[in-house]
Amino acid sequence: MKMGTALIYDEEMTKYKLLWVDPACKIEVPERLTVSYDALIQNGLTDRCVSVPVREATDADILQVHSEEYLEAVKKTPYMTLEDLKEFTLQYGDVYFHPNIYHCAKLAAGAALQLVDSVMTGKVRNGMALVRPPGHHSMRSAANGFCVFNNVAIAARYAKQKYGLKRVLIVDWDVHHGQGVQYCFEDDPSVLYFSWHRYEHQKFWPQLRESDYDSVGKDKGAGFNINVPWNQVGMKNSDYLSLFCHVLLPVAYEFCPDLVLVCAGFDSAIGDPEGKMCATPDIFAHLTHLLMNLAGGKLCAVLEGGYNLTSLPQSVCQTVQTLLGDPAPRPANLDGPCESALESLHCVRSAHRQYWSSLKHAADLPTSDISTKRIKLAEEEEGKSENGEEETSEEVWPEPLKRVPPPIRTAVVLPDGVTCPDGCKRFSSLEDPNQESVNKLRETLLKAEADSVALATLSSLIALVEKMEKNEICNGLALVADVSMAMMRLVQHAATAPHSRLLVVCVGDEVVPSLDTDDGKTLLVQFSSKESDKQKSKYHINVCLKKGCSDALGFTQAVLSLLLPLGYEYDPSLVLLVRMSDSGVCDSAWQQLTGLLLGLAQGRTLVLMQEAEKARVGLTASSLLGDAAPSLGQLDAPLPEDVEALERLRHRLQADWKLLQTTAAPDTGRGDAP
Ligand code: Q9C
Ligand code: ZN
Q1: Hey, what domains does the chain have and what are their CATH numbers?
Q2: Which atom of ligand 1 is nearest to the CA of 306?
Q3: CA 115, CA 127: separation in Å to the nearest integer?
Q4: Which residue of the set 98, 137, 346, 352 is catalytic?
Q5: pLDDT digit string, tens, across residues 89-110
Q6: What is the pTM for the complete model shown?
Q7: Which of 112, 539, 591, 639 could covalently link to 151 via disulfide, CB atoms 3.0 to 4.6 Å apart?
Q8: Does 137 sit in the ligand 1 pocket, CB within 6 Å?
């Protein structure tokens, strides 16, 4: 299955620049593109992508979003004198014109359209377009914020029209609010727009009232515009991931898009002079990964902002390498969201709970709107000296490590007679008899095992895990006679390794033998339909769903808003995914789970399944190989009891796991209930 990744770039788009002095615009330089493209070359990524040529967007394409008057006005700019250009520029905010910018703007929009075509025709699975000028601030009849035409908005209209798409998701992770995109689709329920942005209670550019969390969309489009205002600078990886797990992903899975477009601005990364945030470039590997199983993997990322010429290329490389399917690095220092991010999260969830079943049990707004917003604004206004720029110390961060994928992606341990799926390597410890440690373990751990077939399987599993730890094999899949026993043995084995942290995810009702997890070397999360009587510890969590795992949306929501945050905060070195014979999970939900878990532990996941489930080997292997999971389809809301039970469990666990928090400090909303 696994199709390629398109990369769209044309040097022509570096051929315009600011021709006069304007402090607001001096950061938007041609080097933004050249350093990004050079970094892709340096990391060997351009060679691995399918290079797709740009084209000029046509008048008809542009007129899908912009007015005729505006297009005609921009068309005249190539013939203007410097003085005329300056004057023309003056009618707009924070943007500049140049004799060649109209040409580049047509190429930038056309690049987005070429990307949509490449993905929608199946030439590639996903892709990225490196473009200038950016697009998300430009409006129907106005240039704004370095943007001339709204590349992504044009692409969304085009995709809907040309390919008959019913639903398009736009994720805007640029640090500015793409107000142009919001205005374009605000009353349109077929385009879901999500944007987070530096806001500081409306003090940050473009200082719009309508960038706040309570602009949720209009008329039929109510609920389809999601704004996350960042009211402080310095947001970190935890803050971004928290928003994905508790707002964007639950809503996106419920929305079920046919295509995902990303306004991929990297001014939300550390070191950016505009954003002043502290998320590291590797976070974009995770943001990308988390979106890659929506819409059957159809994802188009289009460059927006990003002005630090070190963090921009690093972030671009993280994004493209993830689109190519390489496992993401282990995310650093996820110490939980900050108070201000929690307040934003709280407000957004509450503003949207009437529109999305996954947010139905979100807590009420924190006390009153006035106390949280306007009063704070006034206080800060008082406390601060108004004379401009605070001293800025240069941010430093380590260069992301090279991501070297293991030579073997997926190894399988299968009984004789079960064929090895395409693209996988059949694995047996017998082929590798010199493994001293395995032999030792055989003696110590396995001597009790009478059955020689079971013994061979177990020693293969242990050998496989060791190869995963040594980065020789990325992930694996095994069919075993007794999943519980195999799981126990692997947990015991992991406990002997010094730095091992094992996340065990069990799917199904089978009773899990109680494991000694108190040392924190193992985190066990079980999804089942059976309420468990025993009091579980911080490291042994039972997620009980009425319909078990058979309610695909309910189950997936539990994965997104419970398992993922737990997994990210725990930061395992290995994931063991155990599918019990009575799991009841449907294929697409199972593949979603498998795909999403690959974001943890550098993709080191070992899947254990019962022998009788050999019919599931092919699709599980496909997920481990990095194919996108099929989408769940548009489903009915999960059982209200399940959503509520999940919310209660999350609430109970949030004292121990900060990434499970969804409200700012005193939680008195109705999510607090029973
Ligand atoms: N210091 C994009 O990132 N300047 N545009 C704000 C406040 C406008 C950003 C000045 C920034 C526009 C695509
Ligand atoms: Zn920006």
Answers
A1: 5-337 (3.40.800.20), 413-426+474-638 (3.40.800.20)
A2: 3
A3: 7
A4: 137
A5: 999 999 999 999 999 999 999 9
A6: 0.95
A7: 112
A8: yes
